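Q: Can I see a sequence and its folded structure?
A: Here is a first one.
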Amino acid sequence: MDRFFIIFFNDSFDELGFSLIKIIFLLYIILGSTKIDASENFKEKLYKNEINYSYFKYWNPYKRILDFKGEKVSFYGNIYYKVSYNKDKRIRTVTTIDEENNEEKPITSYGLNQD
């Protein structure tokens, strides 16, 4: 690392303009690499926070029982339930989807508070 700084700062003070260009170039290299690292970390966090949904055919809200798990496509044309889980793998939300697969306007939606 010392050799790198000697290359950039071993100029005499008479050549101030050239040294200034080297300093700006050095700062651009350092700050440019940290900006790339920060954006990659942000993308990893963004993908980590994505919600994974499971789909079920049967849901009993009183006993909190889900049954007949399957893919979303296998339930088209029938009423099915879209379920998300919290970090403890407990049910967080259950949304009822109608026969026309209209997810923008669900029939019912349950948000469960589990302490």
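Q: Show me another, different protein.
A: A second, unrelated one:
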Amino acid sequence: MNLDGYAEKCFILLIKMTLFQIRDCNIMYIPGKAFEGFLNLDSFTLEHGTIDDVEPNAMSGLDVKPARADLHKIPRKYGRFEMRYSRFVNKVIPPGLLYSWKYLKHAAVVV
């Protein structure tokens, strides 16, 4: 998966999505504001795979927060970011990657 060359908000058509997962992907590059198009996201998960390069502002404009009760039928609230068994090739999470998430309730990084 290579998001290089995509404009900001490359997921703009997914505004009603509440859960987003990337699984078993080798991501070469994530540009700045790549995920800004999500409006009602309450769970963002990266699972397995690798991330070669990511801009520090890749998550800018994305806010992961618990969903409102009227957006789902089963009462559950996540508001979480999870990175499970994924690794950054340079072994460092870019500084500031999660700074813009003011409503984030839970974060887990499992290597």
